[in-house]
Design a protein that fits this description.
Rossmann fold, Hect, E3 ligase catalytic domain fold, 5-stranded mixed beta sheet, 19 strands, 16% strand, globular
Protein backbone atom coordinates (compact mmCIF):
# COMPACT_ATOMS: atom_id res chain seq x y z
CA UNK A 1 0.00 0.00 0.00
CA UNK A 2 1.38 3.40 -0.99
CA UNK A 3 2.16 6.07 1.58
CA UNK A 4 3.19 9.70 1.34
CA UNK A 5 6.69 8.77 2.49
CA UNK A 6 9.03 7.39 -0.21
CA UNK A 7 10.68 4.27 1.25
CA UNK A 8 13.08 2.62 -1.18
CA UNK A 9 15.13 -0.51 -1.64
CA UNK A 10 18.14 0.15 -3.86
CA UNK A 11 19.62 -2.57 -6.06
CA UNK A 12 23.22 -2.69 -7.32
CA UNK A 13 24.61 -5.27 -9.78
CA UNK A 14 27.93 -5.80 -11.57
CA UNK A 15 28.98 -8.79 -13.69
CA UNK A 16 32.57 -10.06 -13.84
CA UNK A 17 32.87 -8.93 -17.48
CA UNK A 18 31.67 -5.42 -16.66
CA UNK A 19 34.03 -5.17 -13.68
CA UNK A 20 37.00 -5.17 -16.07
CA UNK A 21 35.62 -2.24 -18.05
CA UNK A 22 36.45 0.38 -15.44
CA UNK A 23 34.93 2.44 -12.64
CA UNK A 24 31.86 3.72 -14.53
CA UNK A 25 29.72 0.69 -13.70
CA UNK A 26 31.30 -0.16 -10.33
CA UNK A 27 29.15 -0.98 -7.31
CA UNK A 28 30.50 2.06 -5.49
CA UNK A 29 29.71 4.32 -8.44
CA UNK A 30 26.14 3.00 -8.65
CA UNK A 31 25.71 3.47 -4.89
CA UNK A 32 26.90 7.09 -4.98
CA UNK A 33 24.61 8.03 -7.88
CA UNK A 34 21.53 6.49 -6.24
CA UNK A 35 22.24 7.98 -2.80
CA UNK A 36 22.71 11.44 -4.28
CA UNK A 37 19.43 11.09 -6.17
CA UNK A 38 17.60 10.00 -3.01
CA UNK A 39 19.05 12.93 -1.03
CA UNK A 40 17.95 15.37 -3.71
CA UNK A 41 14.39 13.99 -3.88
CA UNK A 42 13.68 13.23 -0.21
CA UNK A 43 13.66 9.46 -0.62
CA UNK A 44 14.49 7.28 2.41
CA UNK A 45 16.68 4.26 1.65
CA UNK A 46 15.44 1.28 3.71
CA UNK A 47 17.73 -1.53 2.46
CA UNK A 48 20.52 -2.00 -0.06
CA UNK A 49 20.83 -5.22 -2.08
CA UNK A 50 23.97 -6.11 -4.04
CA UNK A 51 24.88 -8.78 -6.60
CA UNK A 52 28.60 -8.32 -7.28
CA UNK A 53 29.91 -10.68 -9.96
CA UNK A 54 26.51 -11.84 -11.26
CA UNK A 55 25.39 -11.77 -14.89
CA UNK A 56 22.25 -9.92 -15.92
CA UNK A 57 21.23 -12.83 -18.16
CA UNK A 58 18.87 -14.27 -15.53
CA UNK A 59 17.23 -13.19 -12.29
CA UNK A 60 18.23 -16.09 -10.04
CA UNK A 61 20.64 -13.89 -8.09
CA UNK A 62 20.85 -13.94 -4.28
CA UNK A 63 20.68 -10.18 -3.84
CA UNK A 64 17.77 -9.73 -6.24
CA UNK A 65 15.80 -12.61 -4.75
CA UNK A 66 16.40 -11.24 -1.24
CA UNK A 67 15.05 -7.88 -2.41
CA UNK A 68 11.88 -9.51 -3.77
CA UNK A 69 11.32 -11.18 -0.40
CA UNK A 70 11.85 -7.84 1.36
CA UNK A 71 9.34 -6.15 -0.95
CA UNK A 72 6.68 -8.67 0.11
CA UNK A 73 6.91 -7.43 3.73
CA UNK A 74 5.24 -4.20 2.59
CA UNK A 75 7.88 -2.02 4.25
CA UNK A 76 8.94 -0.27 1.03
CA UNK A 77 7.13 1.34 -1.89
CA UNK A 78 10.05 2.03 -4.24
CA UNK A 79 12.93 0.21 -5.98
CA UNK A 80 15.76 2.19 -7.55
CA UNK A 81 18.64 1.13 -9.83
CA UNK A 82 21.26 3.23 -11.60
CA UNK A 83 19.92 2.15 -15.01
CA UNK A 84 17.81 -0.60 -16.58
CA UNK A 85 20.81 -2.81 -17.34
CA UNK A 86 21.51 -3.06 -13.58
CA UNK A 87 18.07 -4.62 -13.15
CA UNK A 88 18.96 -7.16 -15.84
CA UNK A 89 19.80 -7.61 -19.51
CA UNK A 90 17.20 -10.21 -20.45
CA UNK A 91 14.65 -8.24 -22.48
CA UNK A 92 11.50 -10.16 -21.51
CA UNK A 93 12.24 -10.57 -17.80
CA UNK A 94 13.55 -7.04 -17.32
CA UNK A 95 10.42 -5.68 -18.97
CA UNK A 96 8.26 -7.95 -16.80
CA UNK A 97 9.73 -6.74 -13.52
CA UNK A 98 9.91 -3.06 -14.50
CA UNK A 99 6.50 -2.75 -16.17
CA UNK A 100 4.39 -5.50 -14.55
CA UNK A 101 5.72 -7.01 -11.33
CA UNK A 102 6.66 -3.78 -9.54
CA UNK A 103 3.48 -1.85 -10.43
CA UNK A 104 1.30 -4.85 -9.53
CA UNK A 105 2.94 -4.93 -6.08
CA UNK A 106 2.52 -1.15 -5.58
CA UNK A 107 6.23 -0.58 -6.07
CA UNK A 108 7.40 2.62 -7.80
CA UNK A 109 10.45 1.62 -9.89
CA UNK A 110 13.08 4.12 -11.09
CA UNK A 111 16.12 3.61 -13.34
CA UNK A 112 17.91 6.94 -12.87
CA UNK A 113 20.33 7.18 -15.80
CA UNK A 114 17.80 5.87 -18.35
CA UNK A 115 15.03 8.15 -17.12
CA UNK A 116 12.71 5.19 -16.61
CA UNK A 117 9.78 5.76 -14.23
CA UNK A 118 7.16 3.01 -13.83
CA UNK A 119 4.52 5.63 -13.01
CA UNK A 120 5.10 7.46 -16.28
CA UNK A 121 4.67 6.58 -19.98
CA UNK A 122 8.07 5.25 -21.13
CA UNK A 123 8.06 5.42 -24.93
CA UNK A 124 11.72 4.42 -25.29
CA UNK A 125 11.55 1.52 -22.82
CA UNK A 126 11.10 -1.27 -25.44
CA UNK A 127 14.23 -0.08 -27.26
CA UNK A 128 16.21 0.24 -24.02
CA UNK A 129 15.30 -3.31 -22.98
CA UNK A 130 16.15 -4.58 -26.49
CA UNK A 131 19.57 -2.87 -26.55
CA UNK A 132 20.50 -4.41 -23.19
CA UNK A 133 19.54 -7.81 -24.59
CA UNK A 134 21.63 -7.19 -27.73
CA UNK A 135 24.62 -6.31 -25.53
CA UNK A 136 24.20 -9.62 -23.70
CA UNK A 137 24.09 -11.65 -26.91
CA UNK A 138 27.02 -9.77 -28.45
CA UNK A 139 29.20 -10.45 -25.38
CA UNK A 140 28.28 -14.13 -25.55
CA UNK A 141 29.18 -14.28 -29.26
CA UNK A 142 32.57 -12.61 -28.74
CA UNK A 143 33.47 -14.89 -25.84
CA UNK A 144 32.55 -17.99 -27.87
CA UNK A 145 34.73 -16.81 -30.78
CA UNK A 146 37.75 -16.30 -28.51
CA UNK A 147 37.30 -19.72 -26.87
CA UNK A 148 36.89 -21.40 -30.28
CA UNK A 149 40.17 -19.92 -31.54
CA UNK A 150 41.97 -21.08 -28.40
CA UNK A 151 40.60 -24.60 -28.84
CA UNK A 152 41.73 -24.74 -32.48
CA UNK A 153 45.25 -23.77 -31.35
CA UNK A 154 45.18 -26.56 -28.73
CA UNK A 155 45.30 -24.12 -25.81
CA UNK A 156 43.81 -25.37 -22.56
CA UNK A 157 41.15 -22.70 -21.93
CA UNK A 158 39.40 -24.35 -19.01
CA UNK A 159 40.01 -25.09 -15.35
CA UNK A 160 42.90 -27.62 -15.10
CA UNK A 161 41.53 -31.06 -14.21
CA UNK A 162 42.46 -32.83 -10.98
CA UNK A 163 46.01 -34.14 -11.42
CA UNK A 164 47.20 -31.16 -13.47
CA UNK A 165 47.99 -27.48 -12.91
CA UNK A 166 48.66 -24.55 -15.21
CA UNK A 167 52.17 -24.41 -16.65
CA UNK A 168 53.97 -21.58 -14.75
CA UNK A 169 55.82 -20.70 -17.96
CA UNK A 170 52.83 -20.92 -20.31
CA UNK A 171 49.33 -20.25 -18.96
CA UNK A 172 47.74 -21.81 -22.06
CA UNK A 173 49.06 -25.31 -21.25
CA UNK A 174 48.94 -27.70 -18.29
CA UNK A 175 51.56 -29.85 -16.53
CA UNK A 176 51.23 -32.66 -13.95
CA UNK A 177 50.54 -31.43 -10.42
CA UNK A 178 53.04 -33.22 -8.15
CA UNK A 179 50.50 -33.21 -5.30
CA UNK A 180 47.54 -34.74 -7.14
CA UNK A 181 48.93 -36.59 -10.19
CA UNK A 182 49.83 -39.64 -8.02
CA UNK A 183 46.22 -39.78 -6.79
CA UNK A 184 44.91 -39.97 -10.36
CA UNK A 185 47.46 -42.67 -11.21
CA UNK A 186 46.37 -44.66 -8.14
CA UNK A 187 42.71 -44.40 -9.17
CA UNK A 188 43.56 -45.90 -12.58
CA UNK A 189 45.71 -48.60 -10.98
CA UNK A 190 42.78 -49.67 -8.77
CA UNK A 191 40.41 -49.62 -11.77
CA UNK A 192 42.84 -51.79 -13.77
CA UNK A 193 42.76 -54.32 -10.90
CA UNK A 194 38.98 -54.51 -11.27
CA UNK A 195 37.84 -52.22 -8.43
CA UNK A 196 34.51 -50.50 -9.05
CA UNK A 197 34.06 -46.74 -8.83
CA UNK A 198 32.19 -47.22 -5.53
CA UNK A 199 34.97 -49.28 -3.96
CA UNK A 200 37.68 -46.87 -5.20
CA UNK A 201 35.75 -43.95 -3.66
CA UNK A 202 35.48 -45.82 -0.35
CA UNK A 203 39.21 -46.66 -0.36
CA UNK A 204 40.20 -43.03 -0.97
CA UNK A 205 37.79 -41.82 1.72
CA UNK A 206 39.07 -44.36 4.26
CA UNK A 207 42.65 -43.28 3.56
CA UNK A 208 41.73 -39.58 3.97
CA UNK A 209 42.91 -38.71 0.45
CA UNK A 210 41.99 -35.11 -0.35
CA UNK A 211 39.04 -34.72 -2.73
CA UNK A 212 39.34 -32.64 -5.95
CA UNK A 213 37.03 -29.85 -4.78
CA UNK A 214 38.65 -29.56 -1.37
CA UNK A 215 42.09 -29.39 -2.99
CA UNK A 216 40.91 -26.55 -5.23
CA UNK A 217 39.38 -24.69 -2.29
CA UNK A 218 42.41 -25.08 -0.01
CA UNK A 219 45.37 -24.80 -2.36
CA UNK A 220 44.53 -23.68 -5.87
CA UNK A 221 41.49 -21.57 -6.71
CA UNK A 222 39.73 -18.63 -5.10
CA UNK A 223 36.30 -19.78 -3.98
CA UNK A 224 33.54 -17.69 -2.46
CA UNK A 225 32.23 -18.81 0.92
CA UNK A 226 29.14 -20.35 -0.67
CA UNK A 227 31.20 -22.41 -3.13
CA UNK A 228 33.76 -23.49 -0.54
CA UNK A 229 30.95 -24.84 1.65
CA UNK A 230 30.44 -27.68 -0.85
CA UNK A 231 33.92 -29.10 -0.22
CA UNK A 232 33.90 -32.46 1.55
CA UNK A 233 36.33 -35.18 2.68
CA UNK A 234 34.13 -37.93 1.22
CA UNK A 235 34.91 -39.20 -2.26
CA UNK A 236 31.92 -39.71 -4.53
CA UNK A 237 31.83 -42.57 -7.05
CA UNK A 238 30.65 -40.09 -9.70
CA UNK A 239 33.87 -38.10 -9.25
CA UNK A 240 35.90 -41.29 -9.67
CA UNK A 241 33.99 -42.18 -12.85
CA UNK A 242 34.56 -38.70 -14.26
CA UNK A 243 38.32 -39.09 -13.74
CA UNK A 244 38.35 -42.58 -15.28
CA UNK A 245 36.50 -41.39 -18.40
CA UNK A 246 38.59 -38.27 -19.03
CA UNK A 247 41.01 -38.59 -21.97
CA UNK A 248 42.99 -35.60 -20.69
CA UNK A 249 45.06 -38.07 -18.64
CA UNK A 250 46.28 -39.63 -21.92
CA UNK A 251 47.92 -36.30 -22.78
CA UNK A 252 45.12 -35.01 -25.02
CA UNK A 253 43.28 -31.69 -24.72
CA UNK A 254 39.54 -32.44 -24.76
CA UNK A 255 37.26 -29.40 -24.77
CA UNK A 256 33.72 -28.54 -25.85
CA UNK A 257 32.08 -31.55 -24.16
CA UNK A 258 29.23 -29.37 -22.89
CA UNK A 259 27.63 -26.06 -23.76
CA UNK A 260 25.08 -23.70 -22.23
CA UNK A 261 21.51 -24.52 -23.23
CA UNK A 262 21.09 -20.90 -24.38
CA UNK A 263 22.62 -17.44 -23.97
CA UNK A 264 20.45 -16.78 -20.93
CA UNK A 265 20.59 -20.21 -19.31
CA UNK A 266 23.09 -21.54 -16.77
CA UNK A 267 22.13 -25.13 -17.52
CA UNK A 268 24.71 -27.09 -19.50
CA UNK A 269 23.87 -29.77 -22.04
CA UNK A 270 26.13 -32.56 -23.27
CA UNK A 271 27.65 -32.37 -26.75
CA UNK A 272 27.90 -35.56 -28.89
CA UNK A 273 31.39 -37.06 -28.66
CA UNK A 274 32.01 -36.71 -32.40
CA UNK A 275 31.65 -32.92 -31.97
CA UNK A 276 34.20 -32.58 -29.15
CA UNK A 277 37.28 -30.50 -29.82
CA UNK A 278 40.20 -32.93 -29.27
CA UNK A 279 43.84 -31.99 -29.78
CA UNK A 280 46.18 -34.96 -29.34
CA UNK A 281 49.49 -35.09 -27.44
CA UNK A 282 49.43 -31.57 -26.01
CA UNK A 283 50.83 -32.31 -22.53
CA UNK A 284 52.47 -34.97 -20.38
CA UNK A 285 50.18 -38.01 -19.94
CA UNK A 286 49.59 -39.53 -16.48
CA UNK A 287 48.54 -42.99 -17.76
CA UNK A 288 49.05 -45.24 -20.79
CA UNK A 289 46.46 -46.07 -23.44
CA UNK A 290 46.44 -49.68 -22.20
CA UNK A 291 45.63 -48.56 -18.64
CA UNK A 292 42.85 -46.30 -19.92
CA UNK A 293 41.27 -49.03 -22.08
CA UNK A 294 41.45 -51.62 -19.28
CA UNK A 295 39.87 -49.19 -16.83
CA UNK A 296 37.03 -48.48 -19.28
CA UNK A 297 36.40 -52.20 -19.75
CA UNK A 298 36.39 -52.96 -16.02
CA UNK A 299 34.27 -49.93 -15.23
CA UNK A 300 31.78 -50.98 -17.89
CA UNK A 301 31.14 -54.18 -15.96
CA UNK A 302 29.44 -52.06 -13.28
CA UNK A 303 27.29 -49.92 -15.57
CA UNK A 304 24.10 -50.32 -17.57
CA UNK A 305 26.14 -50.90 -20.73
CA UNK A 306 27.15 -54.26 -19.24
CA UNK A 307 23.48 -55.34 -19.39
CA UNK A 308 24.06 -56.53 -22.96
CA UNK A 309 25.85 -59.56 -21.49
CA UNK A 310 23.59 -62.58 -20.92
CA UNK A 311 25.14 -63.51 -17.57
CA UNK A 312 24.06 -60.24 -15.94
CA UNK A 313 20.71 -60.14 -14.12
CA UNK A 314 18.43 -57.53 -15.69
CA UNK A 315 15.75 -56.32 -13.26
CA UNK A 316 12.53 -55.00 -14.82
CA UNK A 317 12.01 -52.81 -11.71
CA UNK A 318 15.10 -50.60 -12.14
CA UNK A 319 14.41 -47.04 -11.03
CA UNK A 320 11.05 -47.94 -9.46
CA UNK A 321 11.86 -49.95 -6.34
CA UNK A 322 13.14 -48.52 -3.04
CA UNK A 323 13.83 -49.45 0.57
CA UNK A 324 10.93 -48.45 2.82
CA UNK A 325 13.32 -47.76 5.73
CA UNK A 326 16.01 -45.52 4.19
CA UNK A 327 14.60 -44.65 0.77
CA UNK A 328 17.60 -46.04 -1.11
CA UNK A 329 17.17 -47.93 -4.37
CA UNK A 330 17.10 -51.74 -4.40
CA UNK A 331 19.60 -53.39 -6.75
CA UNK A 332 20.19 -56.95 -7.93
CA UNK A 333 22.16 -59.25 -5.66
CA UNK A 334 22.47 -62.96 -4.94
CA UNK A 335 24.48 -65.91 -6.19
CA UNK A 336 24.40 -68.75 -8.73
CA UNK A 337 24.14 -72.35 -7.49
CA UNK A 338 24.14 -75.36 -9.79
CA UNK A 339 23.30 -73.12 -12.70
CA UNK A 340 20.26 -71.62 -10.95
CA UNK A 341 20.23 -67.83 -11.31
CA UNK A 342 16.63 -66.73 -10.81
CA UNK A 343 16.14 -68.91 -7.72
CA UNK A 344 18.93 -67.08 -5.88
CA UNK A 345 18.23 -63.63 -7.32
CA UNK A 346 17.37 -60.92 -4.79
CA UNK A 347 16.75 -57.18 -4.85
CA UNK A 348 18.58 -55.60 -1.90
CA UNK A 349 18.88 -52.14 -0.37
CA UNK A 350 22.08 -50.42 -1.51
CA UNK A 351 22.79 -49.35 2.08
CA UNK A 352 22.71 -52.82 3.65
CA UNK A 353 26.53 -53.33 3.50
CA UNK A 354 28.18 -52.05 6.69
CA UNK A 355 30.80 -50.28 4.57
CA UNK A 356 28.04 -48.07 3.16
CA UNK A 357 28.28 -44.42 4.17
CA UNK A 358 24.59 -44.43 5.15
CA UNK A 359 24.33 -47.98 6.50
CA UNK A 360 20.70 -49.14 6.76
CA UNK A 361 20.10 -51.30 9.84
CA UNK A 362 16.70 -52.47 8.59
CA UNK A 363 17.38 -52.63 4.87
CA UNK A 364 14.93 -54.35 2.55
CA UNK A 365 15.73 -57.58 0.71
CA UNK A 366 13.22 -59.49 -1.41
CA UNK A 367 13.48 -62.42 -3.78
CA UNK A 368 13.14 -61.17 -7.36
CA UNK A 369 10.77 -63.98 -8.36
CA UNK A 370 8.51 -63.17 -5.37
CA UNK A 371 8.16 -59.55 -6.41
CA UNK A 372 7.43 -60.53 -10.02
CA UNK A 373 4.65 -62.82 -8.78
CA UNK A 374 3.18 -60.12 -6.51
CA UNK A 375 3.00 -57.51 -9.27
CA UNK A 376 1.78 -59.95 -11.91
CA UNK A 377 -0.87 -61.35 -9.54
CA UNK A 378 -2.21 -57.91 -8.62
CA UNK A 379 -2.34 -56.72 -12.23
CA UNK A 380 -4.23 -59.89 -13.21
CA UNK A 381 -6.64 -59.22 -10.34
CA UNK A 382 -7.32 -55.81 -11.86
CA UNK A 383 -7.82 -57.41 -15.29
CA UNK A 384 -10.37 -59.88 -13.89
CA UNK A 385 -12.56 -57.17 -12.33
CA UNK A 386 -16.04 -56.77 -13.76
CA UNK A 387 -17.46 -53.41 -14.85
CA UNK A 388 -19.56 -53.41 -11.69
CA UNK A 389 -16.48 -53.98 -9.52
CA UNK A 390 -14.62 -51.15 -11.25
CA UNK A 391 -17.59 -48.76 -10.85
CA UNK A 392 -17.73 -49.55 -7.12
CA UNK A 393 -13.98 -48.90 -6.73
CA UNK A 394 -14.28 -45.57 -8.56
CA UNK A 395 -17.33 -44.58 -6.45
CA UNK A 396 -15.45 -45.24 -3.19
CA UNK A 397 -12.43 -43.30 -4.49
CA UNK A 398 -14.59 -40.29 -5.45
CA UNK A 399 -16.21 -40.16 -2.01
CA UNK A 400 -12.82 -40.36 -0.29
CA UNK A 401 -11.41 -37.70 -2.61
CA UNK A 402 -14.36 -35.34 -1.91
CA UNK A 403 -13.85 -35.76 1.82
CA UNK A 404 -10.14 -34.96 1.47
CA UNK A 405 -10.90 -31.97 -0.79
CA UNK A 406 -13.09 -30.34 1.88
CA UNK A 407 -10.40 -30.89 4.49
CA UNK A 408 -7.73 -29.44 2.22
CA UNK A 409 -9.88 -26.39 1.42
CA UNK A 410 -10.26 -25.69 5.15
CA UNK A 411 -6.51 -26.21 5.59
CA UNK A 412 -5.74 -23.61 2.87
CA UNK A 413 -8.01 -21.06 4.57
CA UNK A 414 -6.41 -21.57 7.98
CA UNK A 415 -2.89 -21.48 6.54
CA UNK A 416 -3.59 -18.27 4.59
CA UNK A 417 -5.01 -16.69 7.77
CA UNK A 418 -1.81 -17.57 9.62
CA UNK A 419 0.31 -16.09 6.80
CA UNK A 420 -1.68 -12.85 7.08
CA UNK A 421 -1.19 -12.86 10.86
CA UNK A 422 2.56 -13.29 10.37
CA UNK A 423 2.70 -10.31 7.99
CA UNK A 424 0.92 -8.16 10.59
CA UNK A 425 3.25 -9.37 13.34
CA UNK A 426 6.32 -8.51 11.22
CA UNK A 427 4.98 -5.01 10.55
CA UNK A 428 4.34 -4.48 14.27
CA UNK A 429 7.85 -5.71 15.12
CA UNK A 430 9.38 -3.15 12.75
CA UNK A 431 7.30 -0.42 14.40
CA UNK A 432 8.34 -1.61 17.86
CA UNK A 433 11.97 -1.58 16.75
CA UNK A 434 11.63 1.97 15.42
CA UNK A 435 10.16 3.05 18.78
CA UNK A 436 13.01 1.36 20.66
CA UNK A 437 10.83 -1.31 22.29
CA UNK A 438 12.93 -4.17 20.91
CA UNK A 439 16.59 -4.29 19.88
CA UNK A 440 17.92 -4.86 16.37
CA UNK A 441 19.19 -8.27 17.43
CA UNK A 442 15.78 -9.32 18.78
CA UNK A 443 14.12 -7.98 15.63
CA UNK A 444 16.47 -9.95 13.40
CA UNK A 445 15.90 -13.22 15.29
CA UNK A 446 12.12 -12.88 15.38
CA UNK A 447 11.83 -11.79 11.73
CA UNK A 448 14.00 -14.70 10.60
CA UNK A 449 11.85 -17.17 12.53
CA UNK A 450 8.59 -15.70 11.21
CA UNK A 451 9.85 -15.53 7.60
CA UNK A 452 10.89 -19.18 7.80
CA UNK A 453 7.43 -20.17 9.07
CA UNK A 454 5.74 -18.03 6.41
CA UNK A 455 7.82 -19.56 3.59
CA UNK A 456 7.00 -23.06 4.82
CA UNK A 457 3.27 -22.26 4.98
CA UNK A 458 3.30 -20.77 1.47
CA UNK A 459 4.93 -23.93 0.10
CA UNK A 460 2.22 -25.98 1.81
CA UNK A 461 -0.50 -23.84 0.21
CA UNK A 462 1.12 -24.33 -3.21
CA UNK A 463 1.12 -28.11 -2.68
CA UNK A 464 -2.54 -28.15 -1.69
CA UNK A 465 -3.53 -25.87 -4.58
CA UNK A 466 -1.57 -27.99 -7.05
CA UNK A 467 -3.30 -31.09 -5.74
CA UNK A 468 -6.68 -29.39 -6.17
CA UNK A 469 -6.14 -28.87 -9.92
CA UNK A 470 -4.82 -32.36 -10.63
CA UNK A 471 -6.73 -34.75 -12.88
CA UNK A 472 -10.20 -35.50 -11.36
CA UNK A 473 -10.18 -38.78 -9.45
CA UNK A 474 -12.82 -40.42 -11.66
CA UNK A 475 -10.86 -39.57 -14.83
CA UNK A 476 -7.63 -40.88 -13.29
CA UNK A 477 -9.23 -44.22 -12.39
CA UNK A 478 -10.89 -44.49 -15.81
CA UNK A 479 -7.50 -43.87 -17.45
CA UNK A 480 -5.92 -46.65 -15.38
CA UNK A 481 -8.66 -49.19 -16.07
CA UNK A 482 -8.74 -48.25 -19.76
CA UNK A 483 -5.08 -49.31 -19.91
CA UNK A 484 -5.89 -52.49 -17.99
CA UNK A 485 -8.59 -53.38 -20.54
CA UNK A 486 -5.88 -53.73 -23.21
CA UNK A 487 -4.85 -57.05 -21.58
CA UNK A 488 -6.75 -60.33 -21.23
CA UNK A 489 -4.14 -61.89 -18.93
CA UNK A 490 -0.50 -61.15 -18.13
CA UNK A 491 1.60 -64.31 -18.40
CA UNK A 492 5.00 -62.61 -18.52
CA UNK A 493 5.85 -59.34 -16.80
CA UNK A 494 7.89 -57.02 -19.05
CA UNK A 495 9.58 -53.66 -18.39
CA UNK A 496 6.96 -52.00 -20.63
CA UNK A 497 4.07 -53.41 -18.60
CA UNK A 498 5.72 -52.47 -15.31
CA UNK A 499 6.28 -48.87 -16.39
CA UNK A 500 2.78 -48.58 -17.86
CA UNK A 501 1.09 -49.36 -14.55
CA UNK A 502 3.56 -48.79 -11.71
CA UNK A 503 4.96 -45.51 -10.38
CA UNK A 504 6.88 -46.73 -7.32
CA UNK A 505 7.43 -49.81 -5.13
CA UNK A 506 8.62 -49.65 -1.52
CA UNK A 507 9.78 -52.78 0.27
CA UNK A 508 10.20 -53.19 4.04
CA UNK A 509 12.47 -55.57 5.94
CA UNK A 510 11.44 -59.18 6.60
CA UNK A 511 9.44 -59.74 9.80
CA UNK A 512 10.14 -63.22 11.22
CA UNK A 513 7.96 -65.14 13.72
CA UNK A 514 8.74 -64.62 17.42
CA UNK A 515 11.87 -66.47 18.49
CA UNK A 516 13.50 -66.47 15.06
CA UNK A 517 16.42 -64.19 14.17
CA UNK A 518 17.57 -65.66 10.84
CA UNK A 519 15.35 -66.61 7.89
CA UNK A 520 15.54 -70.11 6.44
CA UNK A 521 13.74 -71.99 3.66
CA UNK A 522 11.11 -73.46 5.99
CA UNK A 523 10.25 -70.35 8.01
CA UNK A 524 7.36 -68.17 6.79
CA UNK A 525 7.74 -64.43 7.19
CA UNK A 526 5.88 -61.19 6.57
CA UNK A 527 7.07 -58.24 4.54
CA UNK A 528 5.70 -54.82 3.55
CA UNK A 529 5.47 -54.33 -0.21
CA UNK A 530 3.81 -51.00 -1.04
CA UNK A 531 2.92 -50.64 -4.72
CA UNK A 532 1.97 -47.17 -5.95
CA UNK A 533 0.14 -47.43 -9.26
CA UNK A 534 0.09 -44.69 -11.87
CA UNK A 535 -3.02 -42.49 -11.81
CA UNK A 536 -4.66 -44.22 -8.80
CA UNK A 537 -1.95 -44.49 -6.13
CA UNK A 538 -2.05 -47.38 -3.64
CA UNK A 539 -4.88 -49.91 -3.24
CA UNK A 540 -5.26 -52.48 -0.47
CA UNK A 541 -2.85 -53.47 2.31
CA UNK A 542 0.93 -53.47 2.01
CA UNK A 543 1.89 -56.37 4.30
CA UNK A 544 2.14 -59.77 2.67
CA UNK A 545 2.85 -63.33 3.89
CA UNK A 546 5.55 -65.47 2.27
CA UNK A 547 6.97 -68.98 2.37
CA UNK A 548 10.35 -69.07 0.70
CA UNK A 549 9.95 -72.58 -0.70
CA UNK A 550 6.60 -72.59 -2.44
CA UNK A 551 5.74 -68.87 -2.59
CA UNK A 552 2.01 -68.61 -2.32
CA UNK A 553 2.46 -64.83 -1.95
CA UNK A 554 -0.93 -63.80 -0.68
CA UNK A 555 -2.11 -60.40 0.41
CA UNK A 556 -2.52 -60.45 4.17
Amino acid sequence: MKTAVALADIYLRLSREEASSGESQSINNQRNIIRQYCNDHGITIVREFVDDGFSGSNFIRPGFQAMLNHIKTGLVNMVITKDLSRLGRDMSESSYYAESFFPEHDIHYLAISDGFDSEQVNLMAPFQFAMNDVYLRDCSRKIKQVIKQKRVRGEYCACPPFGYMRNPNDKTSIVPDPNTAPIVQRIYALAVKGCSAHSIANILTDESVITPLKYRVMYRDNFCERGAAHATDIWNHTTVKRILKNQVYLGHTVLGMTKKASVKSKKKVNIPEDEWCITYNTHTPLITQEEYDTAQYNMGMNTKSWSKYDNVRKSIFNGLIFCKNCGSALCSSGSVYKGERVKYWYLSCLNIPKRSTNHCEHGARIKYADLVEIVKSELNQFISLSKKDIDEIIDVAIKESSKNAYQEKDSIKSIEKRIGDIDNIILKLYNDNALGKISDEQLSLMIAKLNKESASLKERVKELQKKAVEQPIDEAYKTFFHLIEQYNHIDELTPEIVRTFIERIEVGEKILPDGYKVASHSIPFRQDVKITYRFIGTIGKDERAFNQDDLPSKIA
